[in-house]
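Fold this sequence, please.
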Amino acid sequence: MSGVSRRSVLGYSGSAAAGAVLASAGTAQAEEKSGAAAAQNAQAAEGSQSAVAFEPGTQFSGRVQHSSGYAELSMTFSVRHEERSGQQEVTPADIAEALNDLAAKRGWPSITFYGTPPKARLN
């Protein structure tokens, strides 16, 4: 809509209709820009969370409430390797995934684990 001048729109239609067309185009462009900004912010937040490097032995914990509202599950773990190779490495993300698989088999929702220190999201 930005390629159409207000004068040309007014020339082809009544002033009320032209105003409505121009107003709706401005709103649509503003919504597109705010939607794109929100998507970029979400991607930046994801990138910053996955970029956290946890020290060996970091303690990870998470808890979740059952959908019934009466039960809560809390888990804590840490991982430390003395000597490792790429194939033998067990990462905190591997453990978090395995624990979530186990919890899901028992009817629990997915648990988000946080490492301390730093207080940062693992999964």
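Residues 59-121 form one domain. The helical segments are 6-12, 15-50, 92-105.
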